[in-house]
């Protein structure tokens, strides 16, 4: 066989094999159960002349000759005895049950999943609050607050209520077994440990001794879990002294009123100006009359002037000029005044520059707002309220969950913050934009792993906040050293001015 023919035949065999392999997936699949079950043999029914096996012919009767059995009828499975074929009467058309059973036994290939758009990230919803707090100031000469703690759940709850007092103030009366403790620095807090029955309301009260009478005092209050780690709810209130009644002011007499005095001064100036004008006019007339009288006693004998009269040359008078020392002194004085004014203005503008101010007032959206703890501060999208800040001992920060490095003297400061979305749309916010400033201008961002652990594993920055919602949550900052944060900077976006809260 020539080589070319062998090659063509080999190629044809190869192509034929490829076609067979391509056609194999298209063959109908057989169910494993149907392939494994043995097919029962076709049974033939006994004829009338052939007795059933195991029976003897009746005596005196000759058995009929055996006849050749015809072909068996198409079997039809019985509903009561599956797998056993029975004969059917002749002439009856049987439905294709076997074909349908075979088609049903074939496995149906899985269909493709329906085209569904990926779910969009919805706004985060605040978890339902089981304990709510309401604080209201009382109308009294001294600062007093009324606190209502309510359990809205169906089970009793153990809670720890903490009220942070303004710096420099001390409690004079505490109700319901509360006790006063020093929270650190110059702040004092009042703590209650309560067990709230289901659907109950407990009223607490405090009275303070203010150091500066008449100054507004803000005292935020929070209800925590029994261990004091996670806040249920927080509220704040500002006490203001009652305004003193305005004293009755008697009307001043007419000669002591400013409009009357100004009008009298204007009339006096006009009269003085008129008198000066009249005096100068009369003086000019006298000088003219004296000159005419002197001219009449001349060589003409008083007969008047004969025109044209030759012009007599008048003596040129030298114009008086100020002395040189006066001009130089005035110029020096004016120059010194200009230089002094410019220097004073520049010094005043430079002294007004705040070197400790962070670059938030130059943001593109909104205006930077600064306030103390417990006062709601609003920016372009959020309203932030810092209720309290507590820091652990140095060296108790622990190892972060992400395996990062921890400062040797690091400690965690937890701030209880209330966030409210004041816009009509859901708004995202980010952990890296929330900062705690330390002395010297150093700052740290939110510790994401510690914040997630403080919120029971929930990432509060993962989803945007829904419109009009409010959340009270802890934010954790890991700082080094013994210095506590002096300021918190909270903002909703990169280009938002944000708010700054001064820590006591």
From TrEMBL:
Superkingdom of source: Bacteria
Biased composition (Pro residues): 38-74, 107-121
Transmembrane region(s): 258-279, 324-346
Coiled coil: none
Keyword line: Membrane, Signal, Transmembrane, Transmembrane helix
Bias (Low complexity): 175-186
Segments of this protein annotated with the region Disordered: 36-92, 105-142, 161-186
Keyword NAD: no
Signal peptide (residue range): 1-22
Record carries keyword GTP-binding: no
Protein name listed in UniProt: DUF4352 domain-containing protein
